[in-house]
Amino acid sequence: MMLHKKYIPQINAIFAAVLLLAVGCLCTVAYSEVPTFNYQKVPKTTQDLIAIQDALVENLERVRKATVSISLGEGFGSGVIVSADGLVLTAAHVTAAVGKELTVILNDGTRLQAISMGLVSNTDAAMMRITESGDYPYVEINKNNDYRLSHWVMALGHSGGFDEERGPVVRLGRILKDSETTLHTDCKVIGGDSGGPLFDLNGELIGIHSRVSKSMEQNMHVPMREYIKNWKSMKEDEFLGDGPFAKRPVKGTGFLGVSTTEIDDGLLIKKVGKNSAAEKAGLKTGDLICKVNDRKITLKAELKDELKQMAADQTITITILRNKQLEKFKVKLGSK
C-alpha cells in the first residue's frame, strides 16, 4: 500500500511527538534513579532515610570483609585490601617505615604475614602487602573523585583493636571539608581505626583514616587521589616526603649488640648484649655468623659495612651455624 505524500509531514510530526514523549519518559526514569539524599541538607522523608539505610546495607558486608586489623606489636591499626593478591592501603603513621614486617588480621581471626611498602610521610599515605599467597576479598577505589561536600560516607575500622566477635565497626557520616590532601568528615573514629577505610555509599574507597580530631566529629582522612598520584613510587618501596607521620630512616643508626671474633668460617659470637636486638631475636654466645642479608660474612669489617646501611628499627636476616645446623634469624635492629 502506498502512502500519499501529502500525509507524510503529518506522520513525521506525530512520530516526532511520540519520540519526544518517549525520551521524556526515559529521562524521568533515569532522574528518579539518582540518589537524592546526597544533595539534601537533611533527609526530608522516611523514604530518604530508608534509601540511605539500603545503600549502606547493600555494600556493608562486602567492604567489611576487606577491612583488616594490623598488629603493631604494642598496638593496632587498620587497613583495607585493594587487590585479590593482598595489596593493602593504610596510613603512614601505622606502618611507620618501609620494609617493616607486620601482621594483618582478617575478620575470621586469620593472621597473615605482611610487609610495609612505600609511604608519603607528609600526607600520611602508605601501602603494604600480604606476603602469604591467597585470593583475598578486596574493594574498588573511587578514581573519579566524584564525591562532594555533605555527601554521605561510611567509615570502617577495628576500633580499639581487633575483636573477632565484633568485627570492624561502621560509622555513618558526611563530608565536611575537602582539600587537596585531606578529607574531613563527622564520622566518629577513634584509636585503632587509624589506616582504616572511608567509603562512599556505593561502597567505593574514597579515603584512609589519618587523624582523629579532639571533638571526634571532625576527623581527617587521606583522599584516594593522594594514593593514586604516588602509586608507582609506593609500590617501588619509596619513602616520600619529610613530614610528621613517619621518620625517614637514618643509615648507620642500627645496633645489633654482639661482640665477635674472626675465625675461618665466619664470625664467632663471644658475647650478646643484655636486652639487645641480638638477644631479643634469639642469638646466643657460641653462634657462628655466616651471612647477613645473604652476604657471606667472614670479617668484622664486612659485618660493620652491612650495619652501616641499616637504620634503627629496620630488620636484617642473619644466618648462623648452631650445633652444626644452619639457622636464619630476623633481627629488628635497635638504636645506638
Structure explained in plain terms:
With 336 residues, the chain is α+β, with helices and mostly antiparallel strands. The protein has two domains: 39-248, Thrombin, subunit H, CATH 2.40.10.120; 254-335, Pdz3 Domain. The chain contains seven helices and 21 strands. It has helices spanning 8-32, 46-66, 92-95, 224-229, 231-235, 277-281, 300-308; strands at 67-71, 76-81, 87-91, 101-105, 111-120, 125-130, 152-157, 169-178, 183-185, 197-200, 205-211, 219-223, 239-240, 254-255, 258-263, 266-272, 288-292, 295-296, 315-322, 325-332, 334-335. The strands form four sheets. A six-stranded antiparallel beta barrel has the order 1-2-3-6-5-4. Strands 7-8-9-12-11-10 form a six-stranded antiparallel β-barrel. Strand 10 and strand 11 form a beta hairpin. It is elongated and about 80 Å long. The model is unreliable at 1-34 (pLDDT under 50).
